[in-house]
Design brief:
Length: 174
């Protein structure tokens, strides 16, 4: 696993859980819990924005250690296509939805007024379901070598296969 990205996603997940619980508690006692709920939501937003920025940085710098970057980007792509690889795969699409979702939640907190606690509980649950997909079901910060079972790079597996070894030996002069 790519540690910085994974930490940011788990931080967002736990901050989202904290925000959901404290918003639920603020339905009965808003003076006590609403401030903590807002702070947890802002922490979740910061973690998601930082995770998105990290993924974009890895895409733009062609850091092929990450499976998502390896699968959806290329050195030959111009910058505008390289940026679009952010949402090229399923994981990136979920990340984009979460990114815009947490940003949309910031004005929602402000303008929901007396309904803030009730609205944000449901809103956080939808965001948490998408974040859960990214941290548990289809993690996007998976290194490419972990996808290969932790072995050497793919090229060593190709050249050590029996069919290519026999082709190499038959092509050599005797």
């Amino acid at each position: 696993m790519y540690v910085p990205g994974t930490i940011l996603m788990w931080l967002a997940f736990f901050a989202g859980i904290a925000s959901t619980i404290t918003y639920w508690l603020s339905i009965k006692d808003p003076e006590r819990w609403r401030s903590a709920a807002r702070q947890s939501y802002v922490l979740m937003t910061v973690a998601i924005v930082a995770g998105s920025a990290l993924l974009m940085y890895l895409l733009v710098t062609h850091d092929y250690r990450l499976h998502y970057v390896w699968a959806y980007s290329d050195n030959m792509l111009p910058l505008h296509y390289l940026i679009s690889t952010f949402w090229g795969g399923q994981e990136g699409s979920f990340m984009l939805w979460i990114f815009w979702g947490v940003l949309l939640g910031l004005p929602l907190m402000r303008f929901a007024r007396s309904y803030e606690s009730r609205v944000m509980v449901i809103y956080n649950l939808t965001l948490l379901s998408l974040i859960l997909l990214l941290v548990y079901v289809i993690p996007q910060f998976t290194p490419i070598f972990e996808e290969l079972g932790g072995d050497l790079p793919l090229i060593t597996k190709i050249w050590s296969s029996p069919s290519l070894a026999s082709m190499n030996n038959s092509a050599m002069p005797s």
